[in-house]
Amino acid sequence: MIAETLCSAAAVAGLGIAAVTAYRRRFLAAARLAAYSLVPVGLVMTGAVKWIANTAFSPVAWAGFGVLGLAWLLFLTTRTVERRTGGTRKERRAAARAARQDAVAPAASAPSLGAAPAPAARQQRPAQGAADDFSDIEAILKKHGI
């Protein structure tokens, strides 16, 4: 009985605040406040408040929460064990490599404009100084007449 009275009082107070907000021409905020204010009354009218009060003081309900917790713990444990199985570490790594290779299309590894030069060919170029870098820039500037 007290819960219903408190919910009704909260709803009336909320609706009063919503009316003041609407008087100030903030209709969207007023509608939102009215919606929040009507929730406690709706919960009382549907019997949800009574159900929550009976659940909070019921040993059977708390045993049910314990069973739900145990089910959740079993679920997590089986998922962890399932992830950890798969043989040795080498077998798991080999399976991961195979999965990565299957994920990429066979032709996707080669560039579309032709094969890339070998890394050794890149390293065979002699190191050029800063003067060569500026010569390229100078050639571009001369080409444009600058």
In short:
76% of the residues lie in helices and 0% in strands. It is mainly α.
Report what the structure shows.
It is a single chain. The chain is mostly helical and 146 residues long. The protein is 76% helix and 0% strand. It contains seven helices and no strands. The protein has helices spanning 2-23, 27-46, 48-56, 59-84, 89-103, 119-123, 130-143. The longest helix is centred in the middle third of the chain and has 26 residues, at 59-84. It is flat and about 90 Å long.
Largest sheet, strands/sense/barrel: none
Report the C-alpha radius of gyration, rounded.
36 Å
Total count of strands: 0
Shape estimate: flat
Span of the ends, CA to CA: 92 Å
Class by alpha and beta content: mainly alpha
Q: Spans of 5+ residues with little confidence (pLDDT < 50)?
A: none
Residue share in helix: over 70%
List the helices and strands in order: HHHHHHH
Average per-residue pLDDT, rounded, comes to 80
What percent of residues are in strands? Answer: under 5%
Number of helices: 7
List keywords for this structure.
146 residues; mainly alpha; 7 helices; flat
List the helices and strands and how they pair.
Blueprint: H1 2-23, H2 27-46, H3 48-56, H4 59-84, H5 89-103, H6 119-123, H7 130-143
Helix pairs in contact: 1-2
